[in-house]
Design goal:
With 78 residues, the protein is α+β, with helices and mostly antiparallel strands. It is elongated, with a radius of gyration of 19 Å. Helix content is 28%, strand content 40%. It has one domain. The protein has a three-stranded antiparallel sheet with strand order 1-2-3. The protein contains two helices and three strands, in the order βββαα. The longest helix is centred in the C-terminal third of the chain and has 13 residues.
């Protein structure tokens, strides 16, 4: 855990709609050219990283979320 690097992205900082999203860096690739160094960073959302660390097998996608969301709202309350 000591070598794990995190990124915190803050949207609308200082406003009531402020949103904070945390990511864990999984890979960094450096590219050099005559003008400087460029880094390609690959990151995973912190919640998904934590799930994977525990060994859970789960598939999350926008399609699955949308189907579950529509099903939940279409059910009659009991």
């Amino acid at each position: 855990m000591a070598s794990t690097r995190k990124i915190k992205v803050i949207f609308n900082k200082g406003y009531s709609e402020e949103g904070i999203f945390e990511f864990v860096i999984t890979a960094i690739t450096e590219n050099h050219n005559k003008n400087g160094v460029f880094c390609d960073v690959t990151a995973t959302g912190l919640p998904f990283y934590e799930l994977g660390k525990q060994g859970y097998k789960i598939e999350l996608s926008a399609d699955i979320f949308t189907l579950d969301y529509e099903k939940w709202f279409s059910e009659e309350p009991s």
